[in-house]
Amino acid sequence: MSATTADTHVFDVREDNFEAEVLQASLTTPILVDFWATWCGPCKTLGPMLEKLAGEFNGAFRLAKIDVDKSQQLAGMFGIRSIPTVMLVKDGQIVDGFAGALPEGQLREFLLRHVQPQDGDAANDAEAEIPESPEEAVNRIQLAIAAEPERTELKLDLALALMQAGHADAAEAELAALPANLAHDARALRLGSQLDLARALKGAPSLPELQQRVQGNGADWEARDLLGVRLLLEGDAAAGLDQFLATLEKARDWNDGQAKKRLLAAFSTLDDAELVGRYRRRMASLLF
Fold first, then answer.
1. 246: nearest Cα among 283, 209, 275
2. Comparing C-alpha atoms, which of 59, 67, 74 is closest to residue 23?
3. What do you get for the CA distance between the two ends of the chain, in Å?
4. How many Cα atoms are found within 13 Å in the side-chain-facing hemisphere of 172?
5. Which three-class secondary structure string do you get for 238-288?
6. What domains appear along the chain, each with residue ranges and CATH number?
7. Residue 220 burial (10 A CB sphere; 0-12, 13-18, 19+)
């Protein structure tokens, strides 16, 4: 992919052209907005990867670059607390986003949830790429921290990788030790919600045992609750949310309204905006 090809899908945005180039343009083509700054180390890693992917996706989305130092009003309007921060705008609305510099594989996954490459090259590349295991991610980030201890954002990356690898206690310790500027990062808040859910499973029965209990007694609300948490954390989000909804429908007040609390916590941990929106509507229909 040549630099010229990539550049046709990348452009700079300021206050004076934001409405036309991002909001209006997103009605026909999704716009990925990258909030960055020249002094930001992670931005120097993320920016080139985003530009490369913009070229590979060949017009499926366009990349809008916003220098927060030059466009402070835009940064304030979107409540940017840390950079890099990336938001995807479709049909004039923000539909997804993330903060921090993600690995290229995760960037591809993020994009493919919302857009498809025009020529299929990026999808083929993603399939050909050998995915990094959670343990490999932990090792890679630990080496990066040892090499560049001043890059505090790597500590959040490590906490997230540890959680993905199933090391909840280690992830919680890393999260608690984060510097103040990262403690309120969207990814840190999401990890906190995941850890709250994981704590519920300490000493809990296995997945098959919980499934057997629920099949034998549909009103075993404790088993439904734990089954929902297990399914959610083990990757079957919809099935987990269904368990919480079943409790909300039949036993709304069980354990001080825990089903509603579980649903709200789950929503804050999930990346799938369409799934979250669907289940939010189902929850609302039961509550109101």
1. 283
2. 74
3. 52
4. 11
5. HHHHHHHHHHHHHCCCCCCCHHHHHHHHHHHHCCCHHHHHHHHHHHHHHHC
6. 3-128 (3.40.30.10), 134-199 (1.25.40), 207-287 (1.25.40)
7. middle
Please check the confidence at residue 152 and state whether its pLDDT lies above 80: yes
Contact 202, 174 (CB under 8 A): no
Q: Is 38 exposed, middle or buried (0-12, 13-18, 19+ CB in 10 A)?
A: exposed
Q: Which residue type occupies 287? A: L
Q: What are phi and psi of 284, to 5 degrees?
A: -60, -40
Please list the active-site residues. Answer: 40, 43
Q: Which among 81, 130, 102 has a CA at the least distance from the CA of 32?
A: 102
DSSP secondary structure string for all residues of 151-188? -THHHHHHHHHHHHTT-HHHHHHHHHT--HHHHTSHHH
Query: C-alpha distances in angstroms, 49 versus 43, 67, 209, 271?
Result: 10, 17, 44, 20
Q: Is the pLDDT at 168 greater than 90, yes or no?
A: no
**Residue 262, token pair as written in the block:** 């579980």
Contact yes or no for 112/119 (Cβ under 8 A): no
Q: Is this model's pTM higher than 0.70 or not? A: no
Nearest by Cα to 51 from 12, 93, 23? 12
Q: The tokens of 23 are what?
A: 């909001």
- pLDDT of 4 > 60? The answer is no
* Residue whose structure tokens are 């949310």: 241
- Residue 6's CB is within 10 A of a number of other CB atoms, namely 20
- Residue-wise pLDDT for 170-205, tens only, equals 999 999 999 888 888 878 888 888 898 888 888 899
Neighbour order of strands in the sheet with 93-99: 10-12, 62-67, 31-36, 85-90, 93-99
